[in-house]
Structure formats: structure tokens, C-alpha cells
Design brief:
Keywords: Disulfide bond, Glycoprotein, Hydrolase, Kringle, Plasminogen activation, Protease, Secreted, Serine protease, Signal
Strand order of the largest sheet: 11-12-13-16-15-14
Radius of gyration: 24 Å
Catalytic activity: Specific cleavage of Arg-|-Val bond in plasminogen to form plasmin
Protein name: t-plasminogen activator
Subcellular location: Secreted
Strand content: 25-35%
Order of helices and strands: HHEEEEEEEEEEEEEEEEH
Number of strands: 16
Organism: Python bivittatus (Burmese python)
Helix content: under 10%
Shape: elongated
Amino acid sequence: GLFPSNLPLFLSFATEKHSCVSGRGTDYRGSHHQTASGVTCLRWDSHILAKKVYNAFHPDAHHLGLSSHNYCRNPDNDTRPWCHTFKDGVTKWEYCDVPACSTCGLRKHKVAEIQIKGGVYSYIESHPWQAGIFVKSRGAEGYLCGGILINSCWILSAAHCFTERIDPGRLKVVLGRTFRVISSDTEQVFQVERYIVHEKFKPQTFDHDIALLKLKLFSENCATETDSVRPVCLPEAGLQLSDWTECEVSGYGKHEASSPFFSERLKEGHVRLYPDSQCTPARLANRTVTKNMLCAGDTRELDDACKGDSGGPLVCLNDGRMKLIGIISWGVGCGKKNTPGVYTRVVHYLDWIQEKMRT
């Protein structure tokens, strides 16, 4: 009964130490025992290493993770884990290729500011996966939709944002920006190489409302990870969260359904996941609801994501990380009590996302 709520977080990070490297990997305690060139590591307690500085006989060996095994370690704060090798009568050392731990879905949460209808003003550091998609038409540049960073070069968004068959050359994606149209030193701006709208998207019902945008390469990768730019985690296959789980939406959307102007600053709203039994046409002005949609809304008439946030994220905390559960798709009105917003059910599209990113 002592602090049960802290347990899952502790456990999830404990397992990470054993399978992947965070930072330089000084706290890596996994069992990877091969060097980058494929040579098997020498045991740290081997008598061949008796004269080396780092071995299982080091006074601090236990603290450094060195004992009677041959696993890669980083006892000297090198750039990454390494080990000693013994080949053809020669003792050497070599780096190991232990995979890096994913930092998806982690963030520095800054306390949001002023309450407004439809949420609170927020900072990009709290939603570092939030993207803004802009489109150039006749020389001017307009805000099109929100998007979600899922890895360095790929953005998820809503299919209905791209029904006009916009030329990818006219699109621009902005990451790391708190104010929609004001540049900042934390932002990263990209051209779009191509985009893929779901083949079965139906404009009449918004079924399969999902699209992927591939960013143009910028040196060897696209987006660089910072506190303001970081991918969200995709959910595991089959992930089901309980009804009324509190989740959050973010975007640069309008405050009111009737407002002609988009919000100039990122905002966030807190919404709860509706049970499927309450995500019905009767609740949503008799519009079609399919199994690829989920509902979330605020039960207090405050924080629903309002129009203009299309393509943005609905994220929920799960195992210590923010996971992408929905893509903002459509709604009836804005922030009305007992009228939920409708989201694309991301867990149904994991295979589609992987397949499109491979091709």
C-alpha cells in the first residue's frame, strides 16, 4: 500500500535500462555483449583484464555495473557503452551498438496560462509533437490544419485537410512554434516531399480520416529532437484505455465555432474518452459514426477542441508516456456540453502507417 501510484512509472523506466541506451548509457545494465563489428565481448572478470583500469576488480565495480559477465557498459563516461575484446592474442576495446531508448511521448510540462473558452493557452514544450501545416495559394500563405510528429520525417494529419489535392510543393510544416504565425528560435520549418491520404477516406462521412506527410530531408534526418520538437508515441496494437480516461488535445484552433480567426497561440484542452455506447449518431446530429472513430469531450462545457484543430493530436498518458489515441476529425458545434468531438481511432491504422512509411 505504499505509494502504489508511483509503481508503473518506476517499472517502465526500470525495464528500459535493460534493453536500450539513454544518453551516453552510463546507467545501461542490459545484456548486449557484442561489439559494433560483431566480436563477442570479453568477461569483465577475465584475468586478461587484471591490469586494465576498468574490470570486475575495480573498487567501484558494482556501482559501474561491472561484474562476472561480458555485457557492454560505459564505466568511464565515454560517448556510449563499450567492452574489451580478445582476438588473435590481442586485447582491445570496442564500442557496442546498443539501440537508443525512444524518447517519444516525453515532455517538460509547463503550466498552461490564461483560461479561455475551449481550453487554456499553452506552450509548445508541453505539446512538442504538435505541427502546424500551412499552404501557399496565390502568393499568400494560409494555415491549413494541425499535424502530429510521429518520427523525424513523418507527420500524421487528417485526410479531409487534403481533399483539394493540394500540390505538396505548396505545403509547409512548422514544428516547435508556440504562436501560430510568429517565428521563434525554437522552430523547425520543412517542405513536404509527398503526402498520402488514406485510400478509403470517405468525404461524406469522414471515415478513415487519416493522412501521412513526408518531410523533405534536412541533412541526414528531418526534425531534430529538442524540448520543443519531439515525436509522440503511437499506441501499441490493441491498446484500450478505460472509458472516461482524461486525455488532452492541442492546436491553434478557433476559440468559437463562429470565430473567423484562428487562435494565434497554441492551446490545450482536457477531454475524456466517451464509451462507444455514447458515441452515436443521436449524440452527433444524426451523422454517421463508424468503428474507426472515437468520441472524446468535456463533461463541463469548457475544453473541447474547436474547429481549426483538424489533424491535431488527442493524446493520453499511458506507461509514463503520452500516446496518440486520436486525430482530431470532426464535431458538431464547439465545446457544447454532452456533444463530444470525433477523432480518428489511431490504433486501427498502425499497420497502414508502417506500410506507408516503408514505401
